[in-house]
Amino acid sequence: MTYDLTALRARIPALAAGTAHFDGPGGTQTPQPVIDAISAALSRPLSIRGDGLPGERNAETLVVEARRALADLLGADPAGIVFGRSATQLTYDFSRTLARAWAPGDEVVVTRLDHDANIRPWVQAAERAGVTVRRADFDPATGELTTDHIRAVLSARTRLVAVTAASNLIGTIPPIADIARIVHEAGALLYVDGVHYTAHARVDVEALGADFYVCSPYKFLGPHHGVLAARPALLETLRPDKLLPSTDAVPERFELGTLPYEFLAGTRAAVDFLADLAGRPDGSRRERLGAAFERIEEHEGVLRDRLERGLAALDAVTVHSRAARRTPTLLLTLDGHRTEDAYRFLARRGVHAPSGSFYALEASRHLGLGDSGGLRIGLAPYTGEEDVDRLLAGLAAFLDPAADAHG
């Protein structure tokens, strides 16, 4: 079956406003079934989880179904799915918990490719524990982060390596499974930021070798909150700060306060929506998700090729997304022009392509772009050829106003 973009877009109400969205790396637009699931959860009785009254049972069902959905999406154990306010909050929580076992002389590794949410929590936890932080570089010419870059900063003293599964700035996809192998050989844990990666590829946490994997449903058509996946047995070894009367069961011991039940309903609906993109009713949800992401990758790949061909025709454009394996996310700079001005020009034409470093501050600096970064173009499952053509026409007009004025 073909990828039915028209039918997909018709189920996302925000697209009716007419904006061409290239801001997916910062958050996707929401399908109607996700909106309906959130509304339905709030429309029925809802209370603290339990097995007595309808509100208690509804809450329990929403949590259980959401854990199963995320387990299917990530190739994880439902008992190892932890919910939080955001991926950033979860990383801060786990950095503080893990750091309790660190001591002076230990080392942690972060990379310059990462979003600051997978750098600063570890740096700050290390500082408090008196632990050394070592930084893995990436090649700014190619955008590649390799096992050699990680190996160069690994030692017998390394306790944890934090690395992104895909750069939210330039799209680079490092070889996580290979990195996991050398990290584990060194006796360290691997914490993977999958926030950007999860929106574009089939995830298998076990195959990746991630000890901890975080993502954010609002990057893959769901609502705003965070998710962490880990082996339940590993979670059992960790003792986070928690309230005295709250449960000590895993994974609940890591979930502070009452969960956002309505958002969990929306997340389950988002996973089901993605599975439906497989275009077939047969097979398990996990199998359909695999097929769906094959189609998403193919669709986004075709559009990325179209976009890159168009950008290559614009002399003033420099594309900083160059890794051999990467998501459909491109970072541009424009000779003689500020990308902030390009963003505003495009916005007036109904094209949303934001400018900045997008919290990947160290990556932007390592690329020589300072704190200002560039113009980020991110494709999503609902992006179409017309969107890409509008963006390219808008950039051409921005770079050559005279040509635009004379049509």
Structure report:
With 407 residues, the protein is an alpha/beta fold. It has 15 helices and 13 strands. The strands form 3 sheets. It has a 7-stranded mixed β-sheet, sandwiched between helices. Strand 3, helix 5 and strand 4 form a beta-alpha-beta unit. Helix 4 (87-99) runs parallel beside helix 5 (120-129). The two termini are 39 Å apart. The model has no long low-confidence stretch (mean pLDDT 97).
Strand order within the widest sheet? 2-8-7-6-5-3-4
> Could you give the order of the helices and strands?
HEHHEHEHEHEHEHEEHHHEEHEEHEHH
Share of residues in helices: 40-55%
Mean of pLDDT: 97
Helix vs. strand class = alpha/beta
Coarse shape: globular
Work out the number of β strands.
13
The largest sheet is:
7 strands, mixed
User: Whole-Å distance between the termini?
Assistant: 39 Å
Rg over CA atoms, rounded to whole Å, is: 22 Å
- Oligomerization: single chain
Low-confidence stretches: none
Strand content: 5-15%
Write the layout of secondary structure elements.
Layout: H1 5-10, E1 20-21, H2 32-43, H3 54-74, E2 81-84, H4 87-99, E3 107-111, H5 120-129, E4 132-136, H6 147-151, E5 158-164, H7 176-185, E6 189-193, H8 205-208, E7 212-215, E8 226-230, H9 232-236, H10 261-276, H11 285-312, E9 317-319, E10 329-334, H12 339-348, E11 351-352, E12 355-356, H13 361-366, E13 374-378, H14 385-399, H15 401-405
Parallel strand pairs: 1-11, 3-4, 3-5, 5-6, 6-7
Antiparallel strand pairs: 2-8, 7-8, 9-10, 10-13, 12-13
Helix pairs in contact: 2-10, 3-10, 4-5, 10-11, 11-14
